[in-house]
Amino acid sequence: MVSLRIIYFGTPQFAVPALEKLIASRHQVVTLVSQPDRPKGRGHKLQLTATKTVAAAAAIPVVQPLKLKDPDFLATIADLRPDLGVVAAYGRILPEALLGIPRLGMINIHGSLLPKYRGAAPVHRAVINGDVETGISIMRVVKELDAGPVFSLGRLPIGVDDTTPEIERALSVMGADLVSRVVDQLSEGTPPESPQDDAAASYAPKIEKHEGAIDWNQSAYRLHNLIRGLQPWPLVSGRLNGVKFLVHRSVVPSGRAGGSGGTVVRASEGVLAVAGSDGRVLHIQELQPEGKRPMSARDFLAGHRVAPGVRIEHA
Question: What does DSSP assign to residue 12?
Answer without folding.
Answer: S
